[in-house]
UniProtKB/TrEMBL annotation:
The complex is composed of two ATP-binding proteins (PotA), two transmembrane proteins (PotB and PotC) and a solute-binding protein (PotD). It catalyses: ATP + H2O + polyamine-[polyamine-binding protein]Side 1 = ADP + phosphate + polyamineSide 2 + [polyamine-binding protein]Side 1. This is Spermidine/putrescine import ATP-binding protein PotA. Its EC number is 7.6.2.11. It comes from Pelolinea submarina. One of its GO terms (molecular function) is ATP hydrolysis activity. Keywords: ATP-binding, Cell membrane, Membrane, Nucleotide-binding, Translocase, Transport. It comes from the Bacteria. Residues 6-239 form the ABC transporter domain.
Length: 358
């Protein structure tokens, strides 16, 4: 399947009679050929508006959309070599599975034998063999989603667009479908833009994640980069869970800084930021990187809350007046701690990430 490079240059979209509602604000993004990029963010951040501009359903207020180096701003949706999978599947209820998948090919007036051949190929690809004569209401949610994806793929688009396609499925089926989508995308090597507010979806699907906030990209990077090296407090707080501990730089060198942590000195790698003595910072550490034990250590705390979830136990621990979150995986293998008990809290210096505190 032919794929393409997609570029968004200074993309702006405003709404309202006075153009005073700015949904997308100077967005720049390059999506490489065959890459899977997820636009991730909360409701109202501009991710769906961005996707709709790529598809041609919305016109940019300013900026350019380039496909293979050519501007496509003025090209209508049905003329763009793209296909979109919608949140609500958008299947024709009066058409069979076969007819739904074949619809776009018929509109393009392709020969009947070619239509039949192409539909049969995607039916096999999407594990829908034997369901061609069924009506949409006779299918499960997962099967309907496969039909919607098959209808997009049969058009052999250069770019595949997804608008929160799994939000109507139950949790277990969502996990299965995102695995199928990723397997299919890698097999076909098709350039893909996927919109979601679900962090687990973004982390499991994407080559790169663009975290959006207030109409702009706050950070773009691989799932590992986004999680382990968040570029802002918003990203650190939005992606997963994190503890934010206020501190101050006591000493600084080229590759390490020393800070105060709950009355003790902590030396950690400098990371991506340069700090001077007395700079105020946030120490950020993920709950799964904090360890608890009954042994005596430098940091002592009290268990304020313990929530057992089977595969994990989540604790709230108070240290020097601040409550931090701790997640223990595979609790059957380690100690369990009761609410109100005293514990030793251990931090690995390499698990901390710092951001400037303004």
């Amino acid at each position: 399947m032919e794929t393409a490079t997609l570029m968004l240059e200074n993309l702006v979209k405003t709404f309202g009679r006075k153009k005073d509602v700015q949904a997308v604000n100077g967005l720049n993004l390059e999506i490489h050929q065959g890459e899977f990029v997820t636009l991730l963010g909360p409701s109202g951040c501009g991710k769906t508006t961005t996707l709709r501009m790529i598809a041609g359903f919305e016109s940019p207020t300013s900026g350019r959309i380039l496909l293979e180096g050519k501007e496509i701003n003025e090209i209508p949706p049905n003329k763009r070599p793209m296909a979109m999978v919608f949140q609500n599947y958008a299947l024709f209820p009066h058409m069979s599975v076969f007819e739904n998948i074949a619809y776009g090919l018929k509109v393009k007036k392709q020969p009947q034998d070619q239509i039949h051949e192409k539909v049969e190929i995607v039916l096999q690809l999407m594990n829908l063999v034997g369901l061609g004569d069924r009506m949409p209401h006779q299918l499960s949610g997962g099967q309907q989603q496969r039909v919607a994806l098959a209808r997009a793929l049969v058009m052999q688009p250069k770019v595949l667009l997804f608008d929160e396609p799994l939000s109507n499925l139950d949790a277990k089926l969502r996990v299965q479908m995102r695995a199928e989508i990723r397997r299919l995308q890698q097999r076909l090597g098709i350039t893909t833009v996927y919109v979601t507010h679900d962090q687990a979806e973004a982390m499991s699907l994407a080559d790169r994640i663009a975290v959006m906030h207030d109409g702009q990209i706050e950070q773009i990077g691989s799932p590992v980069e986004i999680y382990e090296q968040p570029a802002s407090l918003f990203v650190a707080d939005f992606i997963g869970k994190a503890n934010f501990i206020e501190s101050m730089v006591e000493d600084s060198s080229d590759d390490h800084i020393s800070l105060e942590l709950f009355g003790n000195s902590l030396t950690i790698p400098t990371g991506n930021h340069t700090y001077a003595v007395n700079d105020r910072v946030y120490l950020i550490i993920r709950p799964e990187s904090v360890h608890l034990s009954h042994k005596e250590g430098a940091f002592s705390g009290e268990i304020k809350q313990a929530v057992y979830l089977g595969s994990t136990v989540e604790y709230e621990v108070e240290i020097c007046g601040q409550v931090i979150s701790v997640i223990i995986y595979d609790p059957q293998e380690g100690d369990k701690f009761e609410e109100g008990s005293r514990v030793s809290v251990e931090f690995s210096a390499n698990s901390f990430h710092t951001l400037p505190r303004k």
